[in-house]
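SEVERITY: medium
COMPONENT: batch folding queue
REPORTER: lab tech (J.R.)

DESCRIPTION
The queue accepted two submissions in a row. Attaching both inputs and their returned structure tokens so the on-call engineer can compare them side by side.

ATTACHMENT 1
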Amino acid sequence: MPHQGLLLFRMAPLCMLLGMLMVSCFNFCLCHKNSEFALTNPEKSSTKETERKETIAEEELEPKILEVFHPTHEWQALRPGQAVPAGSHVRLNLQTGAREVKLQDEDKFQANLKGLKKGKRLDINTNTYTSQDLKNALAKFKEGAEMENSKEDQERQAKVKQLFRPIEELKKDFEELNVVIETDMQIMVRLINKFNSSSSSLEEKIAALFDLEYYVHQMDNAQDLLSFGGLQVVINGLNSTEPLVKEYAAFVLGAAFSSNPKVQVEAIEGGALQKLLVILATEQPLTTKKKALFALCSLLRHFPYAQQQFLKLGGLQVLRSLVQEKGMEVLAVRVVTLLYDLVTEKMFAEEDAELTLDAPPERLQQYRQVHLLPSLQEQGWCEITAHLLALPEHDAREKVLQTLGALLATCRDRFHQDTQLRRTLGTLQAEYQALAALELQEGEDEGYFRELLDSINSLLTGLR
């Protein structure tokens, strides 16, 4: 027994060593077993070794043609040379070093669709094309577009040709018809030559002047008429023995003078003012005098030098005789309007000079040499204008009232002595009060008759 106990005592360390060895072997086996069933990680966590293997594998691939891999819902190994469709789930097996592919789960696929709506690209096209295929397709697309554009251009050009004729054909037709396209300058030259020709009939001359008046309304055309001597030809037409020639020549001159200083100056030097006054002072048809007065007004307005010459040549006497002539009431209103324009024009020029406080310019100096108001008083225009209030037309009365207001400072004493003027103003005041009341009933606070009534009241107040 002692011998057996000693033996057991000696074997105890050996058993412990054996046990430790078995535990170590068991641990080793467990580690070996886990490595056979190692978990895989996504491609992003690949090691340098696997990246090197992938690089070598990709370099061995054909760069132009790739086989498309069709994944399923199970993990499958991806062979070298196979292309993965966009949207597939790819992982790298760290144990085998191979890439594995499967279709995405439904929830992840829906998330990708949401990402597409937010602007991310999801390409589900699995077709494979080489670079040469793409180049050929692009070349064919360009050729097709060019052919389509060429067809559209040809169709459009065909439609245009149907609608319009070529300019060469039009020119040929015009030549056959002896039609020549002329400029305004060429037309005016032709019209002046026709008017000035001794072989032209009276009707042809009148037609030439009538057409010429249309062109000289434009400032440039009126100056062109001056440049080739046509203006003087028309001025000379005022001396014609035919009243119609005088009438239409004055008509052309009135249009050419209007707001055209260059033409106005040449007209004064060409003797237009004297000829117009002669027509107004002599016995002529009413229509001829109307056109002559129109030309005179266009020549005098905004031209102080012409106004000076008008006074020197006795223009006011000519107009006074015209106004007092029987049957010339229509011209009387136009004369009064002209006088009002000339008085206020000078007044405004002087007021502008006072406001600017500058040295008087040459134009203002010319206006100051026009002594119009004293001449009007001396030649009896205060009484002549006052008597025109007897005209029945409201428009004529309005213009006469305006002129009386402009002459009030100069003609105050004459107006005080004119008892007929006071009676006329009183009568008109009562008439226009009734008419203004009717306007007020119709809702017009500032009507036409109210303005006339204000002018009468202002004039009566100034005479007190």
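ATTACHMENT 2
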Amino acid sequence: MGCSGCRVRFNFGKVLSKVSVFFTMVLIFTYFFYCLTGLCESAPRALYNQQALDYDILDDHRRILDDLRPSPRLLPDASSYWNRTATADAEQVDAPGQQHQQQPVSDNGIPVSNTFGTKRFPQAIIIGVKKGGTRALLEFLRIHPDVRAVGAEPHFFDRFYDKGLEWYRNLMPRTLDGQITMEKTPSYFVTKEAPSRVCTMNCQTKLIVVVRDPVTRAVSDYTQTLSKNPGLPSFQSLALKNSSTGLIDTTWSAVRIGLYAKHLENWLQYFPLSHFLFVSGERLVSDPAGEMGRVQDFLGLKRVVSEKHFYFNQTKGFPCLKKPEGSSRPRCLGKSKGRPHPQISSKVLQRLRDFYRPFNHRFYQMSGQDFGWD
């Protein structure tokens, strides 16, 4: 009886040993299979590779990098973080409706999915105006860790609306809870169909309009076009239908854009005034921190962007961002910003000021702000 009990205990011990070896082999096999297929590359790594970040000033064909620093709440791998920051500015439409894509890859060349955050429709859009300071405003906003924005102008609500809302959402960067998705396309403000289309997406969207003295804005607009087309007729011949009568040609886009009151009337058919913030392009230059405070309040953000982020560039004549830690140079807008304006007859400029005056006063009443252009 005693020996029988010994045999039972001996056999049980052998079975337990074999089971242990079997499960150990299964775990080892599973581990090697997991790594050989490259799946372990998708696991989050360190916060980011410091050497991968090279903050620099980009030329006219690139946009300024996405953030001065990553959000402390994001913990992506180094390759996906670089893809998020660098390609946000290089991201543009290669052909009508075709977006340039760059997928992050791991060290062994296997694609890595960026699963951090969600692509959402923008909660706020900078809708205008061209040559008002919209690029500067967007770059200043992108310092904020709770703002994520598309680098290039999507032009969805004026050019590519037929591609559908899902196509538009796929252009957006990924955001976490508490972060705001934004985009800017200045031509929306002057596009007749844009207000109804934006409202179809979301009638609660916050709308930011950067406005500037319409006469100065028209000259700046003309200067930009002239740099691309040196054979352009004179400003006077384009602005005036007849030089002897001084009649203004409102069909010229550089003049038409400055009729802010007319464009705002179109938007107010779909959005209440409380959904708009009108940013002064002049104050964005003279007091960037003050205007950015208003913008952050409007978006419901903590006031992170402040005086400490700016310095005034005497050469360009507008504020730039101080250089971030680890960068060799400060961040300033490209060569296309701050071009010298051509000499234009003071009589032509005065005629334009007289023309815009009633429209400006109407805009002051509608917006509840006196921008002091007269």
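NOTES FROM REPORTER
The radius of gyration is 28 Å.
No errors were logged for either attachment.
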